[in-house]
Amino acid sequence: MDDPRFPIGKFTAPSSYTAEGRAAFIRDIESMPGQLRVAVRGLSRDQLNAAYREGGWSLAQVVHHLADSHMNAYLRFKLTATADNPTVVGYDEAAWARFPDAVSADIEVSLSLLDAVHARWVVFLKSLPPESFERTFNHSAMGPMALNRVLALYAWHGRPHTAHITGCRARNGW
Questions:
Q1: Non-local CB neighbours of 77 within 8 Å, separated by 6+ positions
Q2: What pLDDT was estimated at residue 140?
Q3: Could you tell me which of 67, 147, 129 has the C-alpha nearest to residue 101?
Q4: CATH fold of 19-172
Q5: pTM here?
Q6: Mean of the per-residue pLDDT values for the chain?
Q7: Res. 1: pLDDT tops 60
């Protein structure tokens, strides 16, 4: 891709949602933490502090962003399953990425957090009846969003960020 922010392209929502598609999305969510661990394996502190693109986040910030984002997603799913069209508030991802926990914390903290959040999230997702994925939340910036769409989005979300890391590794010969 020409735009290094989107190494696998931008998210495209499916035209329809099926039980088989949801099962595939859940498998993607389940496997994401392991794929991320493989992508960062063996990187030094200096390598983790390198930006994946000019003006972009460091590789460590990408890892910490995934933990922040996926924690929020898991909580939004649970909130939506238990409330009628709740409002969820967006957050400034770039501002979160500038906090010390995203700049200098050991990535193992966020990798472990992703392992745990995804393990819980998958158990939760597998327990939901199909009609629950039609439930919506109202996002403060994006408006109404059905869980079917959000599930597809988060099944995709880890892939471009993992590709930021693997692409940086490849470009630098790491």
A1: 121, 124, 125, 147, 150
A2: 96
A3: 67
A4: Four Helix Bundle (Hemerythrin (Met), subunit A) (1.20.120)
A5: 0.96
A6: 97
A7: no
